[in-house]
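Hi Y.,

Following your request, here is the sequence exactly as I used it, all 239 residues.
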Amino acid sequence: MNAQRGKVYLIGAGPGDIDYLTVKASRLLTTAQVLVYDALVDPKLLDCVSSDCLNLNVGKRGGQTSTAQSDINRLLIKHCSEGKQVVRLKSGDPFIFGRCTSEIGALRASGCEFEVVPGISSALAAPLFAGIPLTDPVLSRCFTVFTAHDPNILDWETLARIETLVILMGTQNLAEIVHQLLKHHRSTSTPIAIIKDAGTSRQEIWDGELINILRKTAGLSLSPAVIVVGEVVSLSKYL
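Below is the corresponding structure, written out as tokens. Let me know if you'd prefer a different format.
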């Protein structure tokens, strides 16, 4: 009899609440033998797996100790090679700042079968939960998504000219984001919103303008959050 062939499913868990998990992702969780998950995943998702599933927390959070990517790669290969059905659960969508390239490369090099299952990115969902449309026929004909954990490498001259900005991993550098946008001639009255814990019961929203958002959020814990900059933020009062 042939041994069971292992497979790794790289799954996006969505923006927060378990209700935004896809049907396919939910089904795969119930059959997982090994679950390798990130820190930002809703803890309720752990209730979806069977009692005998091996749960491995490899969460990555800025400024905190986390599992090295090389160790995560080895875990996936090890359990897949043992014939296990492995779910690699990531927040949001696995291909949007999900560090899948390294994991897929390692799996391919080891001959491990894998499949990527999309999820809803917080870059798209958080503005929606806040009533902010990312596009509008008049106010926003395009938008750009980027991370700001290292603002020094970004082309702020170009970014400042784009109508709508969606910024991930940027709350620790909020002051620098505001500084750079104003330095590159974005209006001081440009609306800005910060959406924390989007899509969960803990969701909080702070809005203002570039000129006053630092004062409005001084001393507050903002992470994890999505930042939206642009005139479309002003539409939230209507939507």
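The domain at 122-237 is CATH 3.30.950.10 (Methyltransferase, Cobalt-precorrin-4 Transmethylase; Domain 2).

Thanks again,
Q.
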